[in-house]
Amino acid sequence: MFDYVSGNRFEMTDAPEENGEQPKRRRFLKACMAVIGGFISMAIGVPLIGFAISPALKKASQKWVDVGIADLLKGSRYKKVNYTFQAKEGWIQIHQKRSIYVTDEGNGNFVVFSRVCTHLGCLVRWDEKKQQFLCPCHGGVFDPAGNVVAGPPPRPLEKLPVKVEDGVLYVKEA
Amino acid sequence: MKPKNAAFWRERFPLREVKNHLKKPLPKHINWLFSLGGMAFFLLMLQAVTGAFLAFYYSPSPDHAYDSVTYISQEVSFGGFVRGLHHWGASAMVIVVFLHLLRVVIYGSYKAPREVTWMVGVFLLLVMLGFGFTGYLLPWDQRAYWATVVGVKIVGTVPFVGDFVGKILRGGEGVGAVTLTRFYALHTIWLPWLAFGLVGVHLFFVRYYGSSGLPQNTPEEMQAGKPFYPDQLFEDALAIWVLFILLAAVARFVPVPLEGRADPTDASYAPRPEWYFLFLFQLLKYFAGPLEVIGTFVIPTLALLLLLFLPFLDQRKRAPLRKRPIALTLTSLSVLLIVLLTILGGRSPKLETSSEKAATADFDTLNPAEQAEQSKTPTQEETPAETGVFDFDLKENH
Prior knowledge:
The complex is a heterodimer.
Chain A: H1 21-57, E1 63-69, E2 79-89, E3 92-104, E4 110-114, E5 125-127, E6 132-134, E7 141-142, E8 148-150, E9 159-160, E10 162-165, E11 168-173
Antiparallel strand pairs in A: 1-11, 2-3, 3-4, 4-9, 5-6, 6-7, 7-8, 10-11
Chain B: H1 6-12, H2 15-22, H3 36-54, H4 65-74, H5 79-106, H6 115-135, H7 142-156, H8 162-170, H9 177-209, H10 228-253, H11 278-284, H12 292-308, H13 310-313, H14 325-347, H15 354-357, E1 363-364, H16 368-376, H17 378-382
């Protein structure tokens, strides 16, 4: 090795340990380093983890969303309806776009199916000829009541809560 | 100041010692398969450099991501080529890493004392798949959006913690602005640091234990081959050269696919993952209902653990592959299975419902102002299924 102060070469040797005090002292130094390191890690780590996962801790609020005039959906059978609503996504206000299937059961009763496949979230599509909902991803098939007929989905299609108020159709949006 | 002599500079830049380090002889009988690791390293550097340049123009926001990628492809000089290198480079990486892994399995190179080298390699494989998964959300096109929706849902099926982990990944309930910045940070900061660190450890162990050579080498032959530098490095360079020419040709002549802008309500899109995740996509189809978790979690996890702990499951001495019939059979079956699933996944027909063939009328409650704004975006015209849509504002008559 090279001593950059004196310019002389020297050999690395272990630091002298003349008396029994030194190992104890060094153990103490090591413990101090562990404490300092541990404290700094915790003081930074806990806030950082909270920082990273905070969006996951927010409770999703369900609210009624205005889909449109109920009269215009009179007599519809598995009618695909797209609608938008204002939502906050992180720091931006967006027009959240959603898509549902609306069926009029008469007497102002509507059945609304979410299009989200209960398998892995692709959008199912209604096939008029087969009278089934088909998923374009992994081959899930649902009957007109939303029950699984074939493929991997573990649950029936989700029926969204629905109400008609003052002639306007609302669905409850997660 | 006196001019310094050569000894002065040698002391300041001890390159000779590095050089001596590189001249260590390799085992005898090393073939070009031993260049696959170097090729993977080259591709990692290529991805790092092209990615760093792409970041000059890319904007990780749902409002701008798609347009910034279009801008890179169409307006920036050499933009298509740079993006092509990065995109096709990712595919090349998957192929090269897969072959590298096969080489290590076939020659039994994962065996003692190189178990940790192997395990670090398996972690690098995971990091690579993480790069792929986080990378293809970034263009914010249809494939990006739906692959991420499905991919994160797969995580969501993990028992107990899946739902929460999925939410952490997405940064909320749905794939959106928060997801995009997360994936961008993971793709451009977290994973690269992790990858470089792991590659450093991987290479340290490769150097420390030396090349594994062929299993039939005698202990004498293990020390009697050509030096790493310049002989082996030259062969690596040749292999890298061929790889680069191929990749550059693909990047130059095959346009990188960019589908329509991400649309959570699209009418006719059939989500498909990138080709190197097709085997997983296909696998998911076989497990219905409560068995779903077998395809999404149990099989992938078991396969991963098997891979990770392979050196400890197979502790017999190294031998040529023909003397390892069980290893040969299992390896061949695994490769066949992955290839078969990939082909089946790639050939699975895209859904077209009878109603779509007849172009149904849809209701759409966008108000006119929003529709005008939407129609300005190019994708609205690009998606053919939307053309038959009967846009109607139900609230207008209220």
